[in-house]
Amino acid sequence: MGGLTVMRALKARLPNECFVYLGDTARLPYGTKSADTVTRYAVQASAALMRYDIKLLVVACNTASAAALPTLLQTLAPLPVVGVIEPGAEAAVAAAPDGPIAVIATEGTVKGGAYVRAIQAIAPHMPVVQQACPLFVALAEEGMRDGPIAELAAHHYLDPLLATMPRPRGLVLGCTHFPMLKDTIARIAGPDVALVDSAETTAATVEKILQERDLLHTGVMMQSRFLATDAPGRFAHLGEIFLGEPIDPGAVTLVDL
Amino acid sequence: MGGLTVMRALKARLPNECFVYLGDTARLPYGTKSADTVTRYAVQASAALMRYDIKLLVVACNTASAAALPTLLQTLAPLPVVGVIEPGAEAAVAAAPDGPIAVIATEGTVKGGAYVRAIQAIAPHMPVVQQACPLFVALAEEGMRDGPIAELAAHHYLDPLLATMPRPRGLVLGCTHFPMLKDTIARIAGPDVALVDSAETTAATVEKILQERDLLHTGVMMQSRFLATDAPGRFAHLGEIFLGEPIDPGAVTLVDL
User: Could you point out which of A45, A83, A214, B104 has its C-alpha 20 to 30 Å from the C-alpha of A168?
Assistant: First the structure.
């Protein structure tokens, strides 16, 4: 579901492109699953998307980007594959060049340490602190974007993280569900901490690759297609909150991976 | 993970039996998935358990019991298959014979209405009110059994439910995760509302069937076995809270369904 926040940024930047979005609703969430299992699922999902003759694949999930990007790049070559971790790391270093940088993500992403590696590949001595925030995923899917429960949960996870010394100056929303809670997170983090949402930077990366390869679609705007592995009606209904616009249930196709 | 609360009750009642527990950790949770998908997963899981020469199958998940019990009974016949919904419904009617009865469960169980049907099959005119509490699953898996976040979430779901008139006298914990939050739920429901946990009644039903069919194991106590479809280490670690005793990571086998 969270990947729709990335699609939202992509659609805003590349309004003429035709998007095919696959939501693995039969097996979500990925955030608590092992890297091996997530990689297997990501390979199956990308194979289903390849049938739509795609020109570029965005892995619009931090957990899948962290676990499966090398495998996907290898399996799908020469297709360009863009994950959300590296654009997120770049944006974080740009937003808080003097650091430290704090990363909030799923259990899987935190455990794998992909953000730490990606940030330190750009800024080798950058201190990075991490915190898994599993409740944020459930809160976003429940539509509890603010209010007392979201507020308390955000304090629970963020207060210890922001109390590390020196105080973090950048906070990466390292799970595509977390932008849904952005206002609550921003209020608790305060104005001196820059919030980093990788969706924007990912969209910029995608645009750059399409430009370089002369693959930008310049014709008329095309209708997005949606694939879901379970409950297409629920996907359309819940997806609307994440995508920020209505999803026609008739445009969601049930697929079996 | 929640099924381990049912196994806990089964082990307490039937300490000599040998249990083989399968946790579908690669695809959990079932609560937000469609009945068709949950049925498919349940059939695959039961096939894996059949290889262990089991004498009875407990479907230790409300969502799977609600969605898949008829299919499992048919597929596995003559093997006895026990779900948690009917024992829960019996316990609810026994605890609150004059009703009304409130049911809290996952989205899937609430939508399917299996508890309403099972309760009204015993007490035809019993008023039943339902509430999906998806956040409770995440709270239980986070180990947040009490404290301010669990308290607020419980108020959020229970206050409107308990305000229905006439006031419910029984409250069914219709998801195997929810017994983890029992103390918090009980405090908010108050002493005049009987909490119903189907695990106990399910264990009693299993004992009765084994007695009737002369299948009780009377020999020495046997070691439980655990199967998980992903991340056996995480299963052992997290499972300890649900089972109420340590799970040896070495006793957890990774299986592919």
Answer: A83
